[in-house]
Amino acid sequence: MIRSSFLSAFSGRGKSIGGKLRLALMPPFVLAALFMAGLFAFLTYTDLEAELETKQKTLADIYATALSDAVWNLDQSGAEAILAALSLDPDVAGAEVKEQFSGVLATVGSALPSDMESALLVRRSIRSDADVGGENIGEVVILFHKERLEVLLQDSVIQISGLLLLLMLVLSVSVTGAIRRFVSDPLETLLRGIQRTEGKHSRDPIKWKTDDEFGIVIDAYNRMIERLSEEEQALIFAKNTAEKANKAKSSFLATMSHELRTPLNGITGMAQLMEDTGLDDRQRNYLHSLRSSGELLLALVNDILDFSKIEAGALEIDHHAFSLHRSAKMVEQLIIPQAKGKGITIKTNIDVDKDEFFWGDGAKISQVLTNLAGNAVKFTDEGEVVISVQVLEKSLDDALIRFEVKDTGIGIPEEQITNLFNAFTQVDTSISRRFGGTGLGLAISSGLVETMGGDRIFVESTVGVGTVFYFELRLPKSEAPKHVCQAVPQNEVTRDLHILIVEDNKINRTVAKGLLEKMGHHVSMANDGQEGVDAVVENEFDMILMDIHMPRLNGLEATKQIRSMDDKEKANIPILALTADVMQDSIEEYSSHGMQGYVAKPVRREALMDALAPYTMSTTSGEYI
């Protein structure tokens, strides 16, 4: 802003002294240049016109003499040859030769105008030779044009205009040099110092020593920035201290969340394996409690990780094409088991088509809706929970979507609504004791909505009647994604597979191996991608479950090497990603490297059976994607 103000002032567009003087001097320079250019053009035109007139008379006299014999002898071809030579002159437009009694003998070029008195026409009498009397035997009429005269005039005007412009520039520089030295330079120095201070690039004092008013102003500015620098350093120190503490906290939460995830995956996975062993009812109840507690703890760890990312500003939005209808239905399916346990009805109102795709983070939208719907079920003892997706505005390029979750639960007191979205906050402590939870869900959901471009989550509630949570997002329309890896409906295993598990974590290998063997499959294992590639070379497999992040050789590179094998049967082995990263962009990357689907971690028996179903129902693997 300061820079633009300075440039405006110094160029004369503002109210600076330099600008005013330049504006005052500019009109005389311009008028003088225009006058001189016009005078030069007039004189040049006059000279060129006189030159052309002289040339016209000379040419007419020469060709009147040259045509004498041809006219005397009525030699039409001879006259035409002479006129042809005349037409080569660039200033000649046309010519005509007349014999005194026979009329027109020869013509060349343009037809002569009817106005035979035009200034562009030159007439000369043709006389016979002196030895035959020197009588008038005919006439030659030559038509001239001024194209060359105009071109010469234009070139001359351009040249003199350039010279005048250069002269005006020299005069302008000379006159404004003094203005710059005594007025503009000190102003420019002061304004640059203010600009550096405003942009926080520097707090250096301005070096300018004069005894005039500019010197006094610059000294006062230097004293001011010295005080500002001292205050700024104190603020920066306090800010850095706070940021270090916040980063340390976020880093600790993120690290601990990741470190806790692996053993928790092992707990829930091993619990699944134990469910199929010979347990009595009491042991089965104990195991169910163990598995439920592990899953709740895993959900809490995920919440803490999300919250730490939001608080640190490190949460990334995974933009991709997704089906909003499918996302809403997925939320419904996730909530139905919880609602059935309480006898609550789940309803959905979805105002978008099944084949209508939008560009955004479908997983995070589903996460927010799942949290809101889960809370609605948690705090509703009877009645219903309604999940709505409504199109408020629609154009060819995008749509404004309203997402709403409405329940008939206990309601929220008005004075507590403002604190709902604070971390670790619930309406009162009895809520936590009765319904459980940490109070992180709404804080995370609110952060997700704001990160995706929404305003905030709105709440309308009446105690004893129910609550409505809603938010709005403007989502661009999109075409269907190129790569879609989806689980198919669960089917019964019809044939056993020889499956290779490529996974660097021992607990994850054990869980996956146990689940697969319970399904009747034969399992081999590799500790990393390189071992997996070597195992494929040496053995025959029906399928590979491939982890993505591994030492030595990661899952994507291992898949690429397998797909490039000369043995086409080995190159076409079905490969499913075994990963916790199931964002749409990542799924498309897996597909582009030759994977045919994925199994999400933590590995669950039902999801694993769904992923294997197409291959257990068929005896041929087909080619990879």
TrEMBL record:
<dbReference type="InterPro" id="IPR005467">
    <property type="entry name" value="His_kinase_dom"/>
</dbReference>
<keyword id="KW-0902">Two-component regulatory system</keyword>
<dbReference type="InterPro" id="IPR001789">
    <property type="entry name" value="Sig_transdc_resp-reg_receiver"/>
</dbReference>
<keyword id="KW-0067">ATP-binding</keyword>
<protein>
    <recommendedName>
        <fullName>histidine kinase</fullName>
        <ecNumber>2.7.13.3</ecNumber>
    </recommendedName>
</protein>
<feature type="domain" description="Histidine kinase">
    <location>
        <begin position="255"/>
        <end position="477"/>
    </location>
</feature>
<keyword id="KW-0547">Nucleotide-binding</keyword>
<dbReference type="InterPro" id="IPR036890">
    <property type="entry name" value="HATPase_C_sf"/>
</dbReference>
<keyword id="KW-0472">Membrane</keyword>
<keyword id="KW-0597">Phosphoprotein</keyword>
<feature type="modified residue" description="4-aspartylphosphate">
    <location>
        <position position="547"/>
    </location>
</feature>
<dbReference type="InterPro" id="IPR003660">
    <property type="entry name" value="HAMP_dom"/>
</dbReference>
<dbReference type="GO" id="GO:0005524">
    <property type="term" value="F:ATP binding"/>
</dbReference>
<dbReference type="GO" id="GO:0016020">
    <property type="term" value="C:membrane"/>
</dbReference>
<dbReference type="InterPro" id="IPR004358">
    <property type="entry name" value="Sig_transdc_His_kin-like_C"/>
</dbReference>
<dbReference type="Pfam" id="PF00072">
    <property type="entry name" value="Response_reg"/>
</dbReference>
<dbReference type="InterPro" id="IPR036097">
    <property type="entry name" value="HisK_dim/P_sf"/>
</dbReference>
<feature type="domain" description="HAMP">
    <location>
        <begin position="181"/>
        <end position="233"/>
    </location>
</feature>
<dbReference type="Pfam" id="PF00512">
    <property type="entry name" value="HisKA"/>
</dbReference>
<dbReference type="InterPro" id="IPR003594">
    <property type="entry name" value="HATPase_dom"/>
</dbReference>
<feature type="domain" description="Response regulatory">
    <location>
        <begin position="498"/>
        <end position="616"/>
    </location>
</feature>
<keyword id="KW-0808">Transferase</keyword>
<dbReference type="InterPro" id="IPR011006">
    <property type="entry name" value="CheY-like_superfamily"/>
</dbReference>
<keyword id="KW-0812">Transmembrane</keyword>
<keyword id="KW-0418">Kinase</keyword>
<dbReference type="GO" id="GO:0000155">
    <property type="term" value="F:phosphorelay sensor kinase activity"/>
</dbReference>
<dbReference type="InterPro" id="IPR003661">
    <property type="entry name" value="HisK_dim/P_dom"/>
</dbReference>
<keyword id="KW-1133">Transmembrane helix</keyword>
<dbReference type="Pfam" id="PF02518">
    <property type="entry name" value="HATPase_c"/>
</dbReference>
<feature type="transmembrane region" description="Helical">
    <location>
        <begin position="21"/>
        <end position="45"/>
    </location>
</feature>
